[in-house]
Every structure is written in C-alpha cells, then in structure tokens.
Amino acid sequence: MKILAFESSCDDTCVAIVEDGRRVLSSCVSSQTDTHALYGGVVPEIASRMHTEAISRLCRMALSEAGLTLSDIDAIAVTYAPGLIGALLVGLSFAKGLASTLGVPLIPVHHVRAHVAAAYLAFPELEPPFVALACSGGTTAFIHVEDYTRFRFLGGTRDDAAGEAFDKVGRVLGLPYPAGAAMDRLAADGNDRAFEFPHPTFADAPLDCSFSGLKTAVINSVHNLRQKGIEPSAADLSASFCRTVSEMLVPRLMRAAEETGCSTVCVGGGVAANSVLRRDLERACRDAGLRLCIPPLSYCGDNAAMVGCLGYYEFLAGHTAAADLNAYATMSLSTEEA
Ligand code: KG4
User: Fold this and answer.
1) For 63, 79, 206, 220, which has the most beta carbons within 10 A of its beta carbon?
2) Which atom of ligand 1 is nearest to the CA of 166?
3) Phi and psi at residue 282, to the nearest 5°
4) Residue whose CA is at the smallest distance from ligand 1 atom 6
C-alpha cells in the first residue's frame, strides 16, 4: 500500500511516499530555517505562507523521486495536530483536496506520535511495545508505545521543550536559530563541569521535568558574568548545558523502561541528534541491558516519511477521516484521551 504523506506542523514543508509503513520511496523536505533565523524563531504567518508556496512543488518532487504518479497512490496521510494552526491547515487542506480528488482514504496523524514511529523506518524488525522519548523544539515526553496506534503519556516537560531551551540559550550566546546543533558542536571542546545548573524534580511525578527554570538559570549565569565584565566561554556553557539536559532525560527514560517492563527504548525528534545525549543513552542502555533505537538524523527532525509510516498503521486500525477533518494546535499524546 503506497501512502502519500504530508507534514507542515511547524517550519518544514515535508512530503513523502511510504510503502506498507516501512519502505520509504521518497522523502522531500523544504526547510524555512534561513527565513525564520532572521527573526530568532519561527514566525507563524510566514511559516503558513511558505508552506503554501512550497507544497505543490514538493508533492510533484516526491512523486517524481519515487517514479510514481498520483494514480499509484492508495491513501493520503497528513499531520493534523499538534502544531502551529495556520501551518497545519496548509498541509491538511492540500491533503484533503487530493484525497477527495483521487477518491482514496484520508488518514489523520499525530505529529509527536509520528516522531516516535520514525524508529520503525530505521529498524525494520522493531515492533511495539517499547518506551520512547520524543524530544524536539515543541515536545519533551516519555511515552509507552503499547501498540502501533496505542500511546500512553508517562510524563514530560511541564513548560518549555528541551529544543526550545537549546534555542533560547543559544540566542543569549549569539548563535543563530535553531541553536541546538551549534551548541552540540561547541560542547565538544568545552568543560562540561564548568557550570552547575539546577535539576528540578517533581515528587508527585518523577518522570516530569522542567526546562524553563534551567533556561533562566543559564541566562542569569551569562548576564551575571557579563555584568562583571567576563564573557562566558560558549564552549563550556554549551558543554555544561548539554550535560544537564542529558542528566534530566536519560535517568527518566531508564525509569520509564523499568516501570513499563520494556526492553527497548526509542528516541525521536530533533534533540535526539545531540551527541552528549546519544553517548549517555548508549551507555545507560548498555548498562541496563536495553536495546536503544535512534533513527538517523534525516528521520529525527521533521519529515513526512514518519507520517506515512504511522499513517499505515492508523489505516490498518481503521482510523481514517472524513472531509470535515480539522487541525488542532494541541492534542493529548495518550491515545485514550485524543
Ligand atoms: O524535531 P525538530 O526538527 O522540529 C520540531 O520541533 O518538531 O526539532 C528541532 C529542535 C530545535 O530546537 C533544535 O535546536 C534541536 O531540535 N536540535 C538539537 C540538535 N539538532 C537539532 N538540539 C540539540 N542538539 C542537536 N544536535
């Protein structure tokens, strides 16, 4: 079954074709990063407009790369939540129009669940159940993937996402948006013990975490040093920040695996690219005897292949939508509450 998939929840226009949920026939991404970098973050109105300008071209490109025409497409999958509402509506409207014209099923896909499903693309034999960390610019969540289409939110950030904290701290260091990858590179030459930042915990919810306080602590440290005429080392600060983020995420993910009895751990989302996090995850999983699955970078960031992948399993579960399908800026990660 060939699914044509669309993703436009933030600042990347993505179109892909995926066969039977696992085989990527094409995956095209048009990034808007350079435009939003001028403003230090994503400007929703600009994102929507740029999606509108790019989506037809990208759709043609995805078909041509796969060597297919629209008549070969069996279903359309589309991210409908969560995300920037105007941005989501571009992909959703385009997908609805195509599904109706072609007379094929329309499959709604949850963006964060799709980030988790990206692991299926890189690990062909991977099957649920497993625990996952979805960690991007908009989300930081620990999830029990009970089945292909049954997700249970175990805990996560109570405020900012980890990627958002990287981007805000990077801005104070004078790095362009998005700053995560640049801080990762800087961290390689820094002293990760140069700064100690707070690790907030929640007694009533041990898997919950907070990045807002961490972000403020880092920004205050920078301002304090600058007031004394000292320019903090961007490398030391990045290294200390990466260590702190990893110390917040890795033990919680190990705990989630223990609590659910899962022996496989998957990580998705842009922050999964972080070298310190990857190194610490590899070590922790080895020590705990867990299998670790992190997709390649092309499937960690936003892409539509992950939407085509999860869309296939949603289709098998009978989860298709009518033409009145709407987009939603927020939506629970847990399937029962959706
Ligand atoms: O998943 P993604 O591409 O987009 C969504 O937010 O959905 O994630 C983007 C986020 C940005 O905040 C970016 O700074 C962060 O991922 N990021 C990283 C790295 N590469 C990207 N954060 C830390 N280390 C990296 N190597």
Assistant:
1) 79
2) 14
3) -60, -45
4) 137
User: Residue type for 335, please?
Assistant: T
Pocket test residue of 113, 135, 177, 271 for ligand 1, highest count of atoms within 8 A of CB: 271
Is the CB of residue 134 less than 8 Å from the CB of residue 269? yes
* String of DSSP letters for 148-190: TTEEEEEEEBSSS-HHHHHHHHHHHTTPPSS-HHHHHHHHTTS
Q: Exposure string (b/e) for 246-280, b if CB count within 10 Å is 16 or more?
A: bebbbebbbbbbeebebebbbbbbbbbbbebbbeb
Tokens linked to 274: 């972080």
pLDDT tens by residue, 61-103: 999 999 999 999 999 999 999 999 999 999 999 999 999 999 9
| Beta carbons within 8 Å of 42's beta carbon, 6+ residues apart | 10, 11, 32, 36, 84
Between the CA of 155 and the centroid of ligand 1 the distance, in Å, is 20
127-299 CATH: 3.30.420.40
At 7-21, the pLDDT tens digits run 999 999 999 999 999
Which CATH class name applies to 2-115+301-337? alpha beta
Cα distances (Å, whole numbers) of residue 112 to 2, 83, 115, 137: 22, 10, 5, 11
Q: How far apart are CA 264 and CA 297, in angstroms?
A: 19
Domain residue extents for the chain: 2-115+301-337, 127-299
26 φ, ψ to 5°? -165, 150
